[in-house]
Amino acid sequence: MPPVTPIPSDQSDSDRPPTRRTSWAEAAAAADATKPAGHLPVLKRVSAPADGQERPATDDRIASVPSAAVEKGERLQSATSTVSPVFRRTRPTPADVIADTPMPDFVSSPGLFVKEQKPRPKSGVRGAIYTVTRGAWNLGPGPKQLREEELGRRISRQLQGSYNTAVLSLKGGIGKTSTTVGVGLTLAEYRGDAPCAIDANPDSGDLVERALGEGIYQQATPRTITDLLRNIETIDSLTALARYMHHAGRLHLIAGEQDPEVSDSLTAEEYLRIRKLISAYYSVALTDCGTGVTHNAMSGILQSADNLVIAAGYAVSGAKRARSTLQWLASHGYEDLARNAIVVITDKDEVSSRVDKDAIEEHLAGICRELIAVPHDRGVADGDLVTLDVLKPETRRAYKEIAAAIVDGYQ
Length: 411
What we know:
This protein has helices at about 20-35, 65-70, 95-100, 125-130, 145-155, 175-190, 205-210, 215-220, 225-230, 240, 270-280, 300-305, 315-330, 335-340, 355-365, 380, 395-410; strands at about 5, 75, 165-170, 195-200, 245-250, 250-255, 285-290, 305-315, 340-345, 370-375. Strand 5 (about 245-250) and strand 6 (about 250-255) form a beta hairpin. The longest helix has 16 residues, at about 315-330. The protein is α/β, with parallel strands linked by helices. Helix 11 runs parallel beside helix 12 (about 300-305).
């Protein structure tokens, strides 16, 4: 390769002989010695060593010009060509700095490239403005919508494992089964995995009738918890288990025994076998218990329960029985269940104004983790089919709060 000589930018006399830089000549000679004939070597960028002497290039990368030449704006010229490109020195970034500096990309940091969009308001004045302006004015969701969305996030929280909530009371007719159905349907609406509800009421429970309707249940093939126990050893898949279950939308149900002669025969060991089977396929299970805490299966239910829902009413007797239930649990080895219990007061009978509801709520609130009131609703009080679509918004919200409190207790 012919020697490369720089053209001084400040030289006015064209007859002055060019100054030859030995370092470039040495680099060119070393490159020519290692390349075959006809091959044009590529200049390599090199850095000056500590002794101030430049070294010849050893690979095919572009070589940099000495800093003094760059500062004067000199150009490189080959003897066989006209003018070569101008090479400018850039300060290299240390390799350790590059390695320690994370580079944003569309996968790890998508928010750096896309502006955050406000959630769409769904109701109220904000929703009306959004609709009228076709989205041009988006004031975002209001406080009520934000609270509803927070409830939905709490209900739909992903769980690791299988959990069971027992719904019980010491008095019948105060909303225990309707609460189980309403909360079960709410869990099914918000959770990605279907919940399961088990009718373990020894007094001919009507859990499935309240979820499906009396007419539909009577037309269905009778499959009860007794049938499930009889064939439990042959069930090895969700498909096989589904033959013994009923479905109210995404809520899966196991019906209680309707024959009075055998309805009270479910033992604690049998319930635990069913619970073990259910835990293999469902992350959330609700168990509708009977009235009282001393029947045969109750010890197995309490052993496997992760939290409790205590059903109560605004009648004075209902509030007293709820408190008695919590006291019994605390004195029989279930202190944690009593302390973390959720008391649900259902205004099923629409008590008169003589009843001090605030006093009853205060009486029960101090002995449980959370107290939630369900307002009077004909869709609950009639004792028939419980359907979320026909319930009052206040009732639906109460069931959401109960469902969220249940999932919060699965820690």
